[in-house]
Automatic annotation (TrEMBL):
It catalyses: 2,5-diamino-6-(1-D-ribitylamino)pyrimidin-4(3H)-one 5'-phosphate + NADP(+) = 2,5-diamino-6-(1-D-ribosylamino)pyrimidin-4(3H)-one 5'-phosphate + NADPH + H(+); 2,5-diamino-6-(1-D-ribitylamino)pyrimidin-4(3H)-one 5'-phosphate + NAD(+) = 2,5-diamino-6-(1-D-ribosylamino)pyrimidin-4(3H)-one 5'-phosphate + NADH + H(+). InterPro entries: DHFR-like_dom_sf (IPR024072), Rib_reduct_arc (IPR006401), RibD_C (IPR011549), RibDG_C (IPR002734), Riboflavin_Biosynth_HTPR (IPR050765). Residues 2-211 form the Bacterial bifunctional deaminase-reductase C-terminal domain. Coiled coil: none annotated. The gene is ribG. SUPFAM superfamilies: Dihydrofolate reductase-like (SSF53597). It comes from Halodesulfurarchaeum formicicum. Keywords: NADP, Oxidoreductase, Riboflavin biosynthesis. Pfam families: RibD_C. Homodimer. One of its GO terms (biological process) is riboflavin biosynthetic process. Belongs to the HTP reductase family. This is 2,5-diamino-6-(ribosylamino)-4(3H)-pyrimidinone 5'-phosphate reductase. It comes from the Archaea. One of its GO terms (molecular function) is 5-amino-6-(5-phosphoribosylamino)uracil reductase activity.
Length: 220
């Protein structure tokens, strides 16, 4: 499966405030670019931390704006080992299909309530979602391309597992600060074998800069 990561960060590398409050780091040009990007992918993925913090919809704002016939909304995917996604989360609405990736540690009653909300549950991994196994199984359902929008914990795990092919980051002209504010790649961090990223393009957008990289997914 082809995996791209897209996110927006401040100049100091933060995705949100230390209170994990969603911030508009992107401006209108970058949000329009993300809308076009979403239409190019079979599925959009986030971690449950982003669902709990932002309650995103992960749908297209205007499917008709992408041509004729209108674009399909991408499938939505949440990495959520213990199925903490609230049944009334926007990502579970009826606009399009949603997979929640869980692990063997998931409480049965959480699965039951998500299944009642119409969610497809896919189990992979023991305590946390085994992302490589889950992506293989999603590919078997016909999902060949995936756009990951965050957050930092999920992005780190995907990079650490060598699953990411490309990375685009909008750097907004703001500072957020805070040692506990989420960054582009959180998790445990690397101490050796730092993944290499190859700069492909730099462009000015809104009041910031869009950086596009190819990620060496063979060498995490
Ligand atoms: N500026 C931007 O572009 C974006 C900003 N954000 C911001 O980021 C913050 C959320 O990021 P963050 O807290 O890092 O949360 P994430 O969205 O990265 O979700 C992390 C959670 O995903 C679950 N998970 C399941 N499997 C895995 C795995 N294999 N590896 C890692 N995580 C896994 C874990 O919960 P469990 O163990 O329960 O499964 C984990 O705590 C919010 O403040 C949001 O506003 C988010 C997206 C984009
Ligand atoms: N590209 C981008 N720029 C920002 O400034 C952001 N805060 C985010 N956040 C991501 O967008 C999701 C919101 O999705 P919906 O519009 O509700 O579909 C949010 O959850 C983050 O993944 N992205």
């Amino acid at each position: 499966m082809y995996v791209a990561v897209n996110a927006a960060m401040s100049v100091d590398g933060k995705l949100a405030s230390r209170e994990r409050e969603q911030l508009a780091i992107s401006g209108p040009e970058d949000f329009a670019r993300v809308e076009r990007l979403r239409a190019e992918y079979d599925a959009i993925m986030v971690g449950v931390g982003t669902v709990l913090a932002d309650d995103p919809s992960l749908t297209l704002d205007d499917p008709a704006a992408h041509g004729e016939p209108p674009a399909d909304h991408p499938t939505r995917i949440v990495a959520d080992s213990r199925a903490r996604t609230p049944p009334d989360a926007r990502v579970l609405d009826e606009t399009t299909e949603t997979y929640v990736l869980v692990s063997e540690a998931v409480p049965t009653d959480h699965v039951d309530s998500l299944e009642r909300a119409g969610v497809s549950i896919l189990e992979a991994g023991t305590s946390q979602v085994d992302l490589a196994a889950a992506l293989d199984r999603l590919e078997a359902t016909g999902i060949d391309s995936l756009l990951v929008e965050g957050g930092g914990e999920l992005i780190f795990s995907l990079v650490a597992a060598g699953l990411v092919d490309e990375l685009s980051v909008f750097v907004g002209s703001m500072l957020i600060g805070g040692r506990d504010a989420p960054t582009l790649a959180d998790g445990t961090g690397f101490t050796e074998d730092y993944p290499s990223v190859n700069l492909q393009s730099v462009s000015e957008l809104d009041d910031g800069v869009l950086l596009e990289y190819e990620v060496d997914c063979e060498n995490p």
